Amino acid sequence: MSFEIVRNDIVNMQVDAVVNTANPNPVIGSGVDSGIHKKAGHELLLARQKIGCIDFGDAVITAGFNLDAK
């Protein structure tokens, strides 16, 4: 499997998925997390609130909403 390293603004990239190491609680963090939430829209926060707290080591999937990610 090949991969490519790209330096760009992740919220403006057309990609299959965005992986974010966000706060385990359903709140908007700072930095990359804040940028993702701003671009995705309020629906992302609502989806995170519905999921609730995420345990250490767990992962969840949400829609990309207004992100260019699939």
**DSSP helix fraction:** 25-40%
Could you tell me the mean pLDDT? 91
Just give the CATH class. Alpha Beta
Task: Evaluate the radius of gyration.
Answer: 12 Å
- How many distinct beta strands? 0
What's the domain count? Answer: 1
Low-confidence stretches: none
Q: Determine the CATH topology.
A: Leucine Aminopeptidase, subunit E, domain 1
Structural class: mainly alpha
CATH homology group:
Leucine Aminopeptidase, subunit E, domain 1
Count the DSSP helices.
2
> What's the main sheet like?
none
Q: Roughly what fraction of the amino acids lie in strands?
A: under 5%
Order of helices and strands: HH
The 3D shape can be described as globular
Distance between the termini: 20 Å
Would you identify the CATH architecture? 3-Layer(aba) Sandwich
Describe the 3D structure.
- It is a single chain.
- The chain has helices at 32-40, 42-51.
- It is mainly alpha-helical and 70 residues long.
- It has a single domain (1-70), classed as Leucine Aminopeptidase, subunit E, domain 1.
- It is globular, with a radius of gyration of 12 Å.
Topology of helices and strands:
Blueprint: H1 32-40, H2 42-51
Q: What would you say about this model in short?
A:
The chain has helices at 32-40, 42-51. With 70 residues, it is mainly alpha-helical. It has a single domain, classed as Leucine Aminopeptidase, subunit E, domain 1, CATH 3.40.220.10.
What brief labels describe this structure?
70 residues; Leucine Aminopeptidase, subunit E, domain 1; 27% helix
